[in-house]
Amino acid sequence: MILQRITDFIWHRLTDLMQGELKQAELGLLASPHLHLSLLARRRATMIVNRVRLFAFLFAVLTPLWSLVDLVVFPFPLWLNLALLRLMAGAAFASLVLNYRPSGELFDAYRALALLFAIPTVFYVASYTLLGHYQLTGMSAAIGAGYAFLPFVLLAGLAIFPLTLLENIVIASPILLAQGIAGSMRWATLDWPSFAGGFWLLVLITGVSTLAGMSQLAFMIALVRQAIRDPLTGCFSRGSAEEVLELQFTIANRSNAALSVAFIDLDHFKKINDSFGHEAGDKALLDMTDIVNSHLRRGDLLARWGGEEFLLIMPNTDLAQAQAALQRMRNMGFGMRPDNTPLTASIGIAERNADQTTGWKALVELADQRMYLAKAAGRDRLFYHSPSH
Predict the structure, then answer these.
(1) CA-CA distance, 367 to 346, in Å (whole number)?
(2) Which of 131, 134, 138, 280, by CA, is between 20 and 30 Å from 222?
(3) DSSP assignment, residue 237?
(4) What is the CATH number of the domain that holds 305?
(5) DSSP state of 34
(6) In terms of domains, do 140 and 284 share one?
(7) Predicted structure pTM score
(8) What digits encode the pLDDT tens for the residues 274-321?
(9) Alpha-carbon span 281 to 272, nearest angstrom
(10) Distance in angstroms (rounded) separating the CA atoms of residues 233 and 299
(11) Which of 174, 207, 228 is the last residue of a domain?
């Protein structure tokens, strides 16, 4: 009861900040990436890598250029060492820009992020150590103090990435740890009140950047939801289903796993629209999709292919399992027609291994052909093999 109240309180506060962007059921998506749909993960991975490359390009240009300022204010030995560090950091940033391209894989995005933040973190610790060996005064001391602001810049930069709470914590923790290590290197001469104030400011910036990143993620979730969902039924759209099929077929090929699809066509649906109007037809579609979605297994995906045609994608499901699942669905029913007679469907099933298809398009086409065979045989039935089989 108390946990529910806390959840509701957090939800209401978040919706005040992000009105219209997020549904309550999607709140967990802001905390961890584990519940993200593959379509959202791929789009987010692409955005993260593109922004990593933008950030890296900026640092690759500005990091070596700052050596001109160092040359004016620092002793030559210190300048030379800092310049070498800056050249190495700039080369590392440039390598990140040149060698990374968006692949849609979240692991690649994480690796790019890790490298982006590791390079300046190592540079910060190394430069902080070098500066600690010199007694700087005047302008030199002021410019040297500016090196201490690098962690602030890094943590503020988190705000441009659409990251979950967990991802922000994982990325920010090494930077905060590096700040602590840098402080411990000057243990004897450290100004503790100043250090504590700076560290608290870093934590505060981390919090603000985390909220900004989560807000971006919430907006992205809302946009992806609109882009991948059919506006009437809330099922996946045809375009998003094609993207999922391409991904799932590739995964199944790599691991030689089963992948089944079922083409579902509602019988005599045009008569509902003609006899009772389109509102009655829309209601029948909504009732049907609600029933099917409520009984889908974890990992299955229902998409509206067009009109009264739907495609059910069933990863890691062989032909026998798909047949059993669709038969249970038929027994359960697809809802009622406006005249209180059962709404039925003609269904065709195809499976990657059993049918030896070479691509997802061929798999869908075969399921479509079998759906038409079911219609030709009298409708309200299930076909999972062709006459030639």
Answers:
(1) 11
(2) 280
(3) P
(4) 3.30.70.270
(5) G
(6) no
(7) 0.71
(8) 999 999 999 999 999 999 998 888 889 999 999 999 999 999 999 999
(9) 6
(10) 19
(11) 228
